[in-house]
Amino acid sequence: MSAELWNSAVRVLETNWSGDHMVPSRKLYPHQWSWDAAFIAIGLAYVNPTRAWRDLRSLFEAQWPDGRVPHIVFDPATAEADYFPGPGFWDVPAYANRPARGSTGIVQPPMHAIAAWDVYRHAAAHGANCAQEARTELEWLYPRLVAQQEYLTGRRNVGGGGLVSIVHPWESGLDNSPAWDEAMANVPADLSLLTTYKRRDLDVSAAAHRPTDVDYARYVGLVLTYRAEGYDDHDLLDRHAFAVECPSFNAIMAGAELSLAQIAGVLGLAAEAAAHRERAQRITAAIVKRLWNPQSRTFHALDVKTGKLSPEHCVSGLMPLMLPDLPAEHVEAIMTEARSSRFGLEGLPAPSYDRTAPGFDTMRYWRGPLWINVNWLLRRGLLVHGFRDEAEDLRTAMVRLVHRNDHFEYFHPITGEGLGAPAFSWTAALSLDLLADRSVPAYARAA
Ligand code: 9WN
Fold it and tell me: Per residue in 409-433, pLDDT tens?
């Protein structure tokens, strides 16, 4: 099974390589996506570290002068009609040496420091040339990764409590999660926007899987207001209709600081390494302070505009498990939630949403189906806190699922059937990692 899965994953990554970057899927997502590039690099490192670095470099070459890393870098060879919302809709001005309309103006979770550190660790196994290349790439990336963190902790500290606010559900990567429902209800939904702008996702995938038109009208409206201000972040709390602190995004922020500490260590920057570790601790403490609900005993998304925590139990609430400084009480609570009938880590990996919720939908995007990338993060959390048996069960469940059902974008949370785009890059890349890497993150607690 291992060789067959390995070879099929390598084939997917070969097909989806576009010269200097990887597309998530040829048909549905024909450009480069930010957090996809990070997950992809982690797996590519085993088979082609040069491409893994190239993919990360392509993305960071499109970094904005203010430090933001755009959620999509558009491929100029791909027609506007091949993805909505495309470059013309985002209408981003030229910056640095990049032409206008080269990217979007929003971000995605900053997974890249975690990826860069993993690629670096694994590249050494490919011999001296790859080790030298890894060092050079790490030196190039480090200040850019730091600038990304500074943008997010600075301009995006909309709530003032030390966490990052996302200003669009697409920034979370968990786009259509019920975690945003209450906050999104306050965003105007102008359905007439969908006559001006035509959705393309429905031409290539089933409507029952995708967000509704009302959701899309809100997504489009949010971009239009951000775009109208030149994607400027001043006074977002008053000006912008959506500002939410997501437990998953912020856990990844803190995880990135820990990986930056490792990177700074390798680059001989001891004082910076210590500062990164401290920032990770501060973000962890802020997640506990701001996103924990002692009644529901899980982490929720916080609507910064209303000050209310979302009532929904989503897989994003389990993600702070990846943080080594998470207090024992919260670790235990996440484990209880992860083992419960809501997310039941038995047999199949965890679904994106509470199985027991009335709105649990086995088909619809981020409202039930299960994704390999979030389960990969969950496994990381299990390892960080020494839950080795559960981590191994989850690893085998993911490997079995992809082997049986192929490299789909996401999977049916009851039958395991593959859903969404086939030949999906991060599923393939992370399968390579799950087959190859049994190691434990350097900052894991002793079991
Ligand atoms: C919008 C590319 C991306 C992922 C996201 C996933 C989906 C896009 C869409 O696809 O989002 O960015 O069109 O729905 O939700 O996590 O990065 O794979």
Answer: 999 999 999 999 999 999 999 999 9
